[in-house]
Amino acid sequence: MIKQILNKLPKKTSLKSSHNDEGKNELDSAAIDSSSVKVSNSSSSSNSSSFRSNAEPNSKKSGPVSVTQVLEVFTHDSFEALPNFRAVSNSEKNNLLIKKLNMCCVVFNFNDSSKHAKEKDVKKQTLHELVEYVSSVSTKFKFFTIQQITKMVAANLFRCLPNLNYENKVIDLYDQEDDEFCMDPSWPHLQIVYELLLRFIASTETDLKLAKRYIDHSFLLRLLDLFDSEDQREREYLKTITHRIYGKFMVHRPFIRKAINNIFYLFIFETDKHNGVSELLELLGSIINGFALPLKEEHKAFLAHVLIPRHKPTNLSIYQQQL
Question: What's the pTM value of the predicted model, to 2 decimals?
Fold first, then answer.
């Protein structure tokens, strides 16, 4: 009877074998897991290496995109005239406006009139449409729209003016009846962009609180730098636009006066050369008419340190009437 009971108990060898089988299974599964990890690591490393190989050329291409690269994208197939604002519904006009503004950010080289002639005509027509839209819009400009307008204006207007060789210039050129002895070849586009900026600032639909985030000190400094342009037509637009900004953006008034004073300081005490002296004096004449009495110390210092020393330069005859 005891033998019968002992026979029913599990044998030790079977326990060992079962444990060995379980151990082998665990080792096998661990080996499988490790191999899968190796495979996944190798695949991920290959993916990462392929990603790096694909990313490296892009990283080399990163940076400011040249005009040539932009034109290669927009010419021929893409740089086509977009629909007129009258041809789309009111809900689609804002998206169309953004597309037109982005298209007009492309700046062409006007030194060669035969190059990109079609694209230049398309951009000119698009700029005219933008001026018409800004003039007739009946709803407030959105924040993103204001950002895109100032971006397009900056892309077209803020450029390096040609280096002027004053030493070889005859001063009598300034006394000619036709003061437009130097004309910017890109003026056909610049004029429309200036007109757009003027209409945008004068529009009642422009929220000044939003616009001042982009028409800021940096924007104003770059705008005032353009007063040194040789093209009188450009200087006249700059004078009108700066006066409008001064009138509407009261927060910028002290900064504009200070920036103009700095231009005069450079002219009087260092360079003795600037193309926009007459226009800046005319602008200051309008600003001075708005001074309240009694005069602030700032304005008295302006008279003593800017206006009176303006009589010293040798080329006083150029701007004597405005002074």
Answer: 0.71
